[in-house]
Amino acid sequence: MYQFSRLCLLLLSVMVMQGCASAPPKDPNNICTILAENKGWSAATAKASKRWDLPPHIGLAFIHRESSFVANARPPREKVLGVVPWRRSSSAYGYAQATNEAWQDYKKDTRRRFVQRDDFADAIDFIGWYNDRSNKRLKLRKNDAYRLYLAYYNGHTGYSQGRWRKSNTIKGYAKKAAAQASLYSKQLRKCRGKLKKRGWFG
Question: Domains, the chain, ranges and CATH?
Answer without folding.
Answer: 25-197 (1.10.530.10)
